[in-house]
TrEMBL record:
Stated name of the protein: TetR/AcrR family transcriptional regulator
Organism the protein comes from: Streptomyces griseoluteus
Residue ranges of the annotated DNA-binding region, renumbered to this chain: 29-48
InterPro entries: Homeodomain-like_sf, HTH_TetR, Tet_transcr_reg_TetR-rel_C_sf, TetR_C
SUPFAM superfamilies xrefs: Homeodomain-like (SSF46689), Tetracyclin repressor-like, C-terminal domain (SSF48498)
Superkingdom of this protein's organism: Bacteria
One Pfam family linked to the record: TetR_C_13
Key word Transcription regulation present: yes
Keywords of the record: DNA-binding, Transcription, Transcription regulation
């Protein structure tokens, strides 16, 4: 007879995402996962594997359900620079207020943690960076087409800079930086690119 699960693996994984996102891998033991999910170890291991497999599943879920929708919206937005500004405004709002304030970004946290020694985790981090950078590039190409960029501004180099700026916002917000200072930094960075405001 097949084993019948008496819990929702999807809801359980979402709980695990929040746990690893808030605490990080190094500070989260399997007992923390057991306590947070209300499941016993054997159920967790049978469904997800060990702690590292569980973390990897949570990281992939974070990428797919939180990061990628934001990247798609940015890449498909036809407004150009206003879309970039709105992306950063939303990022700062999410990182500095509400339920997830000072949690940072699960992916950015992984860049700074011991978990990035796992090649499978590094692959997810690289995928995240590539998709973030491509979304920035798409928005900047749109901005260039609409004459929103200063003469000589390079959408490729600017996309690299803005992707790194997004990581900086994530990490600084986790360390307690306030929204006003982050907005000021974003404005300064956009100005340093020679970007003029869209009409």
């Amino acid at each position: 007879m097949p084993d019948i699960k008496h819990f929702d693996p999807d809801a359980t994984l979402e709980t695990v995402v929040r746990l690893f996102w808030r605490q990080g891998v190094a500070s989260t033991g399997i007992q923390d996962v057991v306590t947070a999910t209300g499941l016993n170890r054997s159920s967790l291991y049978a469904t997800f594997g060990g702690k590292q497999e569980l973390y990897f599943a949570a990281l992939r879920r974070y990428l797919e359900q939180r990061s990628q929708p934001m990247f798609r919206r940015l890449a498909e937005d036809e407004r150009g620079l206003p879309a970039v500004s709105e992306f950063f405004a939303g990022l700062i709002e999410a990182r500095c207020s509400g339920e997830y304030a000072q949690w940072g970004c699960m992916v950015s946290n992984a860049h700074a943690g011991v978990e990035n020694s796992d090649p499978k985790v590094r692959d997810v981090l690289d995928q995240h960076h590539r998709e973030l950078r491509e979304a920035m590039y798409a928005a900047l190409v749109t901005a260039e087409r609409q004459d929103q960029l200063a003469p000589g501004a390079d959408p490729g180099a600017s996309a690299d800079l803005l992707a790194l700026l997004a990581y900086g916002v994530n990490l600084r917000s986790r360390a307690g930086a306030d929204a006003a200072s982050l907005r000021k930094t974003v404005a300064a960075a956009l100005g340093s690119l020679g970007v003029r405001a869209a009409a």
